Amino acid sequence: MSSLRSLSRPVGRRDSLGEAERGRVLAEFNAAVRCPSAHGGVARLPLLLDTLAVDADRSDGARWIVDDNARLDMAAAVRSLFPQPEIHVVAAEYGAAAHRRGWLRVDRVLAADEHTHLVETTKDWARTDRSLDDVLTRYGAPSVVFGDQDPHSAKTLGYAPADPAEPLAVFHFGEAEDTSSAPLLAFRSGHDTFGTSIAFTPLGKGAFYAREKHRD
Description:
With 216 residues, the chain is α+β, with helices and mostly antiparallel strands. 42% of the residues lie in helices and 17% in strands. It has helices at residues 19-34, 44-53, 68-81, 87-101, 112-125, 132-139, 202-215; strands spanning 4-8, 62-66, 109-110, 144-147, 155-161, 169-173, 184-188, 198-200. Strands 3, 4, 5, 6, 7 and 8 form a 6-stranded mixed β-sheet that branches. It has a two-stranded antiparallel sheet with strand order 1-2. A hairpin with a 7-residue loop joins β4 and β5. α1 runs antiparallel to α2. The protein is globular. The protein starts with a strand and ends with a helix.
């Protein structure tokens, strides 16, 4: 997921947030990460994370913020692997970063054994094409939905473990065409870079190769 790293404190940094202001920013981030297009787009997400990070000062004078490279290159990484620059995929990366800091508000928390089972079984399970209905039947309701709630729309489902040190597991779906629910394109879980920790379904691989062929 999006990495967080320690950076030197910038000159002229703003004061820490008050309790009410921090609550407002947390609420805004959690609304925006679920539906970026209604809250200023994905470019607003790292700004909100930076604002929250003001209160995450450490005793050694450093603060934690979203990694600069992830902030600048995340959308490009997504575009290189998906047939279109999927906003919900980028949003899920910022959501995963927020989960690690305890800032992502979720509807469901998976027990440790549930999360371990999901992470350990999904890559093999997704070697066959699956749908949104298949994922919900196998793993239950998600912790968070990034994107449109409509079962036919492209979206990302996130499954959050209770331990924020463990990565958010995410399922990326495309738009449903001839299927009853959105088709699964890829699964991702881990702290490695986006390109090395994502596993595609056969349909997802087909979309990737079609994009590459079109580029040529």
